[in-house]
Amino acid sequence: MRTDQLIQAIAADGPIPGRSLAARMALALLLGGAAAAVLFALMLGVRGDLAQVALTWRFALKVIIATAAFIAALWAIARLSRPEARMRDVAAVLSAPLLLLAGCVVLELLTVRPDHWMTGAIGSNSRICLVSIPLLAAAPLAALLTAVRVGAPASPAAAGAVAGLAAGALGAALYATHCIDDSPLFVALWYTPAIALVILAGALAGRLVLRW
Amino acid sequence: VTDRELHLATLMRAANRGDAGAYRQLLEAVAPVLRGLARQGLSRYGISAEDIEDVVQETLLAVHLKRTTWDEQRPLLPWLRAIVQNKLVDSVRRRGHRLMVPIEDVSDVLAAEDTTGHLNGFDAERMLGRLAGRQRDIVQAISIEGASARQVADRLGMTEGAVRVMLHRALKRLAGAFRSPRP
What we know:
The complex is a heterodimer of chains A (212) and B (183).
Chain A: H1 3-13, H2 21-43, H3 50-53, H4 57-80, H5 87-111, H6 114-122, H7 126-148, H8 156-176, H9 184-209
Helix pairs in contact in A: 2-7, 2-8, 4-5, 4-8, 5-9, 6-9, 7-8, 7-9, 8-9
Chain B: H1 3-16, H2 20-45, H3 52-65, H4 76-94, H5 124-129, H6 133-144, H7 149-156, H8 160-179
Helix pairs in contact in B: 1-2, 2-3, 2-4, 3-4, 3-8, 6-8, 7-8
């Protein structure tokens, strides 16, 4: 087909943009988040002593770190959905929550006696943590990937990975209100690999569904 | 940023507000720019010139289908260049070449503009062959016979809106056909 003929067809289709990426992401988070919340309520539920622990620094920080990772990832998805954006443009923002977690780990190691480190790190819930976070993240990940299909990421795998981070962090924030292990050592040792699994799933799925 | 680039961005913004005339002008003005970019890219990758027009057409479809990913506050050329680069990389991968050199940023893209007119990409029959039924009739009537959506609607006894919906799906399908050229 001649290029000028193709232009005829494209011009006739006309400039009628659909729903914007931001609107699609908001809808995806609403639907995916609702599904995750229902699953959370059925499967786990919030811990009994939430009112007492809500303002302790360990509990607050694990929720804050997960929320920070969630927000950073959403921002990064919006950036990476544009073809000219590169991973290095978003690397600093994405690493901020990780640095915050590292700071908390150092603080914990400095303030807690070494013979209590293992108790905090191993906790009582590690297996449930590793399974729950990816399960809670599944619906938000699927919804986010669907939303990002309107984008044009230079690297579909990277965009999918960041969608995985957003979904994993959302799952982690929910799970954090159930889990009674509040030590930053536990968060670093178990939340991180649980979220990494979701990131991996997002990257693999992104390669398939975010190509354009 | 040159006057020319500002002009293209102005057309694109007008198109986003629903100005169909500006959109057509933009596509016609952008095609030679894309051709120049594709030519530079292909010579860097060492691929034959026959593939250039395929890359140009694939990029035009991507510009159309992904136009919401251009941020109106940002310059237009880096966005176009990124799309061409993406399509070049795909094209190279499909042909089984290994990527050795990334495309460097080209300082003066507009100078490399290639205004060779009326070039063929994939054979029209083969392209239209990827479409079926009414989608094919509509694309053929509009692109090759030069009919308007209104005329096609009257001819096929459809509403103009329905013709546009089908045309949009057909273009998405064509973009997919470029990604896997052999059915």
